[in-house]
Amino acid sequence: MRKPRDIDSELKALADKAKHLKERRVLQLGELVIATGADASDAETLAGALLDVAGNADAARKESWRKRGAAFFQGTARKRGNGVERQPDSARAADGGAASA
């Protein structure tokens, strides 16, 4: 006879994992803001720029932003630092230093 599953502990473990992933996402977004130099902008300007990006439906413009972002992660478009030193630790660990976004 099989051992019954402890559904409550499984649900708690999944909730803990989801919480950890959300915290990691917030941390990585903060690291990205710092790595791009956007932390020099005030919060209102940064929020306005992000709202503009989120509300933009122009596919060509979004593709242009995507390519620029990919170049940033590959290190070809960086203005400050050289290569891996400017990349957040979590980004290096998550993708092994590769350019996946």
Poorly predicted parts: 82-88, 91-101
On the 0 to 100 scale, the average pLDDT is 81
Largest sheet: none
Shape: elongated
List its traits.
elongated; 101 residues; mainly alpha
Topology at a glance:
Elements: H1 7-36, H2 43-55, H3 59-74, H4 89-95
Explained architecture:
This protein is mainly α and 101 residues long. Helices cover 65% and strands 0% of the residues. The chain has a domain at 7-75.
Could you provide a short overview of the structure?
This protein is an all-alpha fold and 101 residues long. Helix content is 65%, strand content 0%.
